[in-house]
UniProtKB/TrEMBL annotation:
Binding sites annotated in the UniProt record for substrate: H113
Active-site residues per Swiss-Prot or TrEMBL entry: Y55
Protein name (Swiss-Prot/TrEMBL): Glyoxal reductase
Molecular function in Gene Ontology: oxidoreductase activity, acting on the CH-OH group of donors, NAD or NADP as acceptor
PANTHER family linked: 2,5-DIKETO-D-GLUCONIC ACID REDUCTASE, NADP-DEPENDENT OXIDOREDUCTASE DOMAIN-CONTAINING PROTEIN
Family statement: Belongs to the aldo/keto reductase family.
Keywords: NADP, Oxidoreductase
All copies of domain NADP-dependent oxidoreductase, residue ranges: 27-263
Site (Lowers pKa of active site Tyr) residue list: K80
Superkingdom of source: Bacteria
Amino acid sequence: MNITNSNGTVTLHNGIQMPYFGLGVYKSKNGNEVYNAITAALKEGYRLIDTASYYNNEEGVGKAILDSNLPREELFVTTKVWNSDHGYEITLKAFDVSLKKLNLDYIDMYMIHWPMPDVYIETWKALEYLYKKGLVKAIGVCNCMPHHIESLIKECSIKPMVLQNEFHPRLVQQDVLDFCKDNNIHFQAWSPLMRGRILENETLVAIAKKYNKSTAQIIIRWDLQKEVCTIPKSVHAERISSNANVFNFQLTSEEVATIDNLNTNERTGAHPDHFIEHFAKKEKGIT
């Protein structure tokens, strides 16, 4: 991955160019909050916006994109099908709803948000249909382990182009990264900053001091040097700008390995094999 600037790209296995750096909008409130965040990001050179039906902000995302007056082909917009919308026909209907909310003619990447047991293969076939119809430029999965993807490869006709999983210095998952590389699937990080929980880590602070950077910038740079596409979330213009300021320095291979060694397999979200229990507890108010 040739890391040069905030709108550089990787080539997916179907030939589509996807920015390796973008803005995640999870928990960004629909309306002014998400609108202002995207407006600030686009002014900073961001060209990938990652949303989902579950985020309930697709309308705000679409309005910000429309008002930016940027050529549509310069932008890469991702959204996702939620757990309650799995199944072939239901997924197609969910896609139509997202497309209308975003006020777009097509989606750059449509993804399965979580691999619902027994139905995610059927859901994937709906994504394949949308891809073949030209309504989406690329299709991918989120929150999957290699065995989920192996099932798709075995049962379906199109291999996922992207896997988006939780990824940060406490959750490196080198085996999953290696699986993706071996299968020509690009890995993309959600929660790359561990929702702020690792920003005071002494090792990261020391590396940040050396480069006169923030710990967030060190982590984002580490992502990119590990060939991990990344979508840090912020609704603050100054942080959106700061997160993009990672292209004028390079970590040493020793520093990358040092950050790798911070891994503890700690998650802020659910494990892909146990997410149904996680969301059931969440609905009951159990943490």
